[in-house]
Design a protein that fits this description.
The chain is of the alpha/beta class. Helix content is 49%, strand content 11%. The chain has helices spanning 3-17, 26-34, 41-61, 75-89, 101-107, 123-156, 160-171, 191-204, 232-248, 280-285, 330-342, 358-369, 387-402, 423-433, 435-442, 453-469, 475-489, 496-499, 502-513, and strands at residues 67-71, 95-99, 180-183, 208-212, 228-229, 255-260, 267-268, 290-292, 306-308, 311-315, 323-324, 348-351, 377-380, 445-450. The strands form three sheets. The chain has an eight-stranded parallel β-sheet with strand order 12-6-4-3-2-1-14-13. It is globular and about 95 Å long. Keywords: Lyase, Magnesium, Metal-binding. This is Isocitrate lyase.
Length: 531
């Protein structure tokens, strides 16, 4: 017996025991229960942590089983993404959501648009997680509501075959609720602040939290200059804080993504504590730029001196008080960061790079895997990269190294549309198309995400509509560019009242008041124009 039918029988039995429940229809109650699978955010976090762990194990066996997500800055955007995935692919398996700190700062702060520097209210992060799951749960209710309506119509028409088919869809319904990889930036303060915010995020439904090794009060976007990292001990204390938050709330298999910005970060706020040569603090300090001290006179007022490699060294200190790493040490620092994080409680890695290059990523991951063989990455397929130019230049460089004639191409001008239909342009597009597959196979990338794609899609679609609507096209800009496409592509939002819950509300009114219910979905509802 299906869960739905079990619930009907259980509620029937309960109704017989209770007084005054004559108006309660067990089928209606079971329906409402089925349309609300998850009662709390913790239910969601526990459910999705298990899914992520299974996906990680499957990827270890077969790298073609990588996962993907898009960053969503509003619950509605996340909902429509998952509805689209189910419509086109029939399943949400291995498709997640990404919650981008960049987009929270730019679009969800009460201060207004902000740069990605952890200046927004930290509570807005947990609030967006809750909002996303509210909309995904509503997508379940919306989809099941249509199925239940269809079941009722089939039964009333005596169509037992159709009723059985719909009942099977209800019994095997796949939820729109999927894992969210949630960005906690650099932790928004000390380790206690990180713990407190982690709890809020987990209670809202987060099964996976991503944290980076930058200084929280100097945090920069991963694709901006001026990034400042912290010693490993500081970062590990925050990983511990996130883990203990998961354990306190009973999400024992919660996932932690440790992000390193060391590839593009040339500064540190403070020197690491070291107790003996070769320990973790000493390794961190060994990357510092500075001058070795030959005699006391080499030390000036206010200079800091440390012992490194058996000698006294004066690290370079900037006017800001920050210390500088030696140029060219970024990859070595990334490898040390990643190994250290995995050996101290992190589950996945994030290496922030300056370009999408499979070879570059693989060179670091292979070094990490010499120590941690199952190391795997979450990778930012960033809109901050000029993907067209990067891949065209990669093809150009590969051809040049092979000895192929590239005289027909200007490497610095490869973004030009004149190269779109060339052999180079087409091959670069093919490399772009295959980037996720190639990088998952060759560079250990378990999860591919685009941090802020819907920021760009919202701007692009709005520009196209505004240009036409306020220009010569007038109303045709909306009708031809939006509504007609919605109808023909089967986009559910064309019936926006239904998408917002009007049919669910009508059914509930009938459950509550029977024939006396005043419903919105009658013959005069203009939504009927869309069939």
């Amino acid at each position: 017996m299906s869960q739905y039918n079990q619930d009907i029988e259980a509620i029937k039995a309960l109704k017989e025991k209770m007084k005054g429940w004559d108006a309660i229809n067990p089928e209606h109650a079971a329906r409402m229960r089925a349309q609300n699978k998850f009662k709390t955010g913790l239910d969601i976090a526990k459910y999705n942590a298990k899914i992520m762990r299974e996906d990680m194990a499957n990827y270890d066996k077969d790298t073609s089983q990588y996962t993907q997500s898009l960053g969503c800055w509003h619950g509605f955007i996340g909902q429509q993404k998952l509805i689209s995935i189910k419509k086109h692919f029939g399943s949400t398996k291995r498709r997640y959501l990404y919650l981008s700190g960049w987009m929270v700062a730019a679009l969800r702060s009460e201060f207004g648009p902000l740069p990605d520097q952890s200046m927004h209210e930290k509570t807005s992060v947990a609030s967006l997680i809750e909002e996303l799951y509210t909309f995904l749960r509503q997508a379940d209710a919306w989809e099941l509501n249509h199925l239940f309506r269809g079941l009722e119509e089939a039964k009333n028409a005596g169509d037992t075959a159709k009723a059985a088919d719909i009942q099977e869809q209800i019994d095997n319904h796949e939820t729109h609720v999927v894992p969210i990889i949630a960005d906690i930036d650099a932790g928004f303060g000390n380790a206690e602040a990180t713990y407190l915010l982690s709890k809020k995020m987990i209670e809202a439904g987060a099964c996976c939290i991503q944290i980076e090794n930058q200084v929280s009060d100097e945090k920069q976007c991963g694709h901006q200059d001026g990034k400042v990292t912290v010693p490993h001990a500081d970062f590990l204390s925050k990983i511990n804080a996130v883990r203990l938050a998961f354990l306190e709330l009973g999400v024992d298999d919660g996932v932690i993504v440790a992000r390193t910005d060391s590839l593009g970060a040339g500064l540190t706020q403070k020197l690491a504590v070291t107790n003996e040569p070769g320990d973790l603090g000493d390794q961190y300090n060994s990357f510092l730029d500075g001058d070795y001290i030959e005699k006391p006179e080499d030390i000036n007022n206010g200079d800091v001196v440390i012992k490194s490699d058996g000698k006294l060294m004066k690290p370079k200190r900037l006017a800001s008080g920050l210390f500088q790493f030696r140029p060219g040490t970024g990859e070595d620092r990334v490898v040390l960061d990643c190994i250290t994080s995995l050996q101290n409680g992190a589950d996945l890695l994030w290496i922030e790079t300056e370009k999408p290059h499979v070879g570059q990523i693989a060179s670091m991951v292979n070094r990490i895997r010499e120590v941690v063989p199952d190391a795997k990455l979450v990778y930012n397929n960033s809109p901050s990269f000029n993907w067209t130019l990067n891949f065209r230049q990669q093809v150009f460089d590969a051809w040049k190294e092979e000895g192929k004639d590239v005289s027909a191409y200007d490497r610095d001008a490869l973004m030009s549309a004149e190269y779109d239909d060339t052999e180079l342009g087409k091959l670069a597009d093919e490399w772009t198309r295959n980037f996720q597959r190639d990088a998952s196979r060759e560079a250990g990338i378990f999860h591919h995400l685009i941090t802020l794609p819907t920021y760009h899609t919202a701007a692009l679609s709005t520009d196209n509509l505004a240009k036409g609507y306020f220009g010569d096209e007038g109303m045709l800009a909306y009708v031809g560019g939006v509504q007609r496409k919605e109808i023909r592509q089967g986009i559910a939002t064309v019936k926006h009242q239904d998408m917002a819950g009007s049919n669910i509300g009508d059914d509930h009114k009938e459950f509550f008041a029977g024939d006396a219910a005043l419903k919105a979905g009658g013959k005069d509802n203009t939504m009927n124009q869309f069939g």
